[in-house]
Amino acid sequence: KLWKAQHNLEENGYVNHEEWLADWRAARSSQFMLVGSKDEPNGNRNCQLEPDGTLKVAVPYSLSGKYGERLKGTKTNYLTTTGIKFKYGHSDVEYALAKGQALTFRFAKKNGIWYLFVTVDLPEVPYQSHRHKGMIGVDLNPGVIGWAYCDGEGNLKALGQIKVNLQDKSSDQTEAILGDACAELVILANTFKCPICIEKLDFARKKAGMKEQGVRYSRMLSNFAYTKEAQMLESRCNRWGIQLIQVNPAYSSLIGLTKFMRQYGLSSDTAAGLALARRALYKSERIPASYGIGIPEDRPKHVWSYWNRVGKKLKGVSRHRFFFMVANSESEVNLLGEEVVSTTRLSGKSRGTSDGRRNS
To answer: Considering the entire predicted model, what is its pTM?
Structure first.
C-alpha cells in the first residue's frame, strides 16, 4: 500500500516525493532479523542472550566507531543490555540455551519502541494420552465445533459443542476465537487422558460442499480458516503431550446421521465427531438393517462402497428427518424405496487412519 502511494502523492497526504521517501525508508528500517545456528556461541554469533538476561548485539563494522564497545577477546563491538525476560515462553528460551540450540532474533520497531522476538525449537513432550482410555472426535464447522468422547470400546460417554462466531471478524479476532476453542478441546483431552481425532480433510472439497448450503455459509468461507484451526490444535496438543490423530472422513457425516444422531439425540456435528472417534479406535460401522442395504457374507467390496449406496439413497433428505425416523418403521423403508433385508456385522481396521506427527 505504501509503495503504491508514491504514484498518487496528493491523494495519500504527501506534498512531494521526498516526504513519501522518508516514510518508505522508515518503514523499511523498522525491523531486522538475526538468524542463529547451534554451532555458534549461545546459539547466535551476532545476538547472544545469556542465561542471566544479558543481551549482546553485534554492531556492523561501519558503525563500530560510533556504537557499542569491544569485548575482551573479540574483534567486534557489541551493544549490551540487561534484564531481558520474555513474558511468554521464557522457559522454552532457557531450555534452548541449556541445550545449545539455535536462537533466531527479530527486532521490530513500533511507535518509537523496539520489540524483541525470539524463535527456538520447543522441547519434546511425551504423550500423556492413550488410545485405550478412549478418543475425542472433533467435527470442524464454520459456526460450531462439535465433539464427542467415547471410551476405549467406542461407547459414547460425553459430548458438547463449542460456538465459533467468525462472521465479520478480523484475522486477529478469528485467530483468538479459534485459539480459545483449541484450548478447550485440549483441556478436555487432558482430563480424559485420551487423544484427539480430527478429519484429514480435502479443504477444497469441504468448502465446495459448504457452498451448496447457502449464502450464509458462503460468506463464512473467507473467514473460517480450516488449515489454521488444524495447525493451532496440533501446536497446542504438542505442548500438552496430547496425541492428535487424523482419519479419513469418508462417510463420517452419513454414519453419524443414520446411526448415532437419533440413537443418542445428537446434533449432526457431534454425531459426526462420534463416528470419527470410533474410526480412530479402529471400529468399523455396519449399516442399520432398516436402511435396506443387504451385505453378503462373502462381500467382495469394502464396507464404504455400501455406505456409498446408502448416501445415494438419502441424497436430498433434510437432516431433521432423521430425528423422526423410527428403526425398522414403514416410513423409513419407504424413504429408501426398498424392502428391509438382513445385514451382517462388519469387522476389521478402518481405512485411512493416521497418527499425528510432531514437528520439532
So the answer is: 0.62
